[in-house]
Design goal:
Blueprint (H helix, E strand, L loop, with lengths): L3 E12 L5 E11 L8 E7 H14 L20 H18 L3 H4 L2 H8 L4 H8 L7 H11 L4 H16 L1 H5 L23
Antiparallel strand pairs: 1-2, 2-3
Helix pairs in contact: 4-5, 4-6
Length: 194
Amino acid sequence: QEFVTVLVRDPRIQKEDSWHSYIDYEIFIHTNSICFTRKTSCVRRRFREFVWLRQRLQSNAVLIQLPELPSKTPFFNMNNPHHVDHRRQGLQEFLEKILQDALLLSDSRLHLFLQTQLSPEDMEACVSGQTKYSVADAIHSFASLNRRFPIEDEERKKGKNDADSDSESSSSGLGPSDDSISCGCKTSPASEES
């Protein structure tokens, strides 16, 4: 049975400059779904990036009624733990509902949002073919830059050895390729958000 677990957690206040701050949240994904390039990932996103994602998903799936994001209230206080946690819960519920819809799961922007630290502009450029890298390349390269646990390298080597041992079927194009080998990927939050 396929599953997708998503957690929105660890809100942190980030300073943009001496006058402006914002909160970003860690998005942790663990899945065995064939829809995902990486089976485990972890990125940080801020509220306005969730707003962008919802708008893009809605414009590509006009017949689907997307779940709402938590409301952007003028009274939101980032120093109030209740406000921050209420927004965090709303963002998690939003992602949980989106990840249950097969049509939305086919949108590359969603995968870039969940599994890379690309900015919305870079995600758009990647999806529209204006970058030298593909969606899968972006996800793989983000994952390889943010590995934390040596066991993942062992799993990957084991997966490659399995593929190498079946060289006849690999050379025919029917065996497992590097893209089809699924190995866990735990990532650390990016040090800076673009």
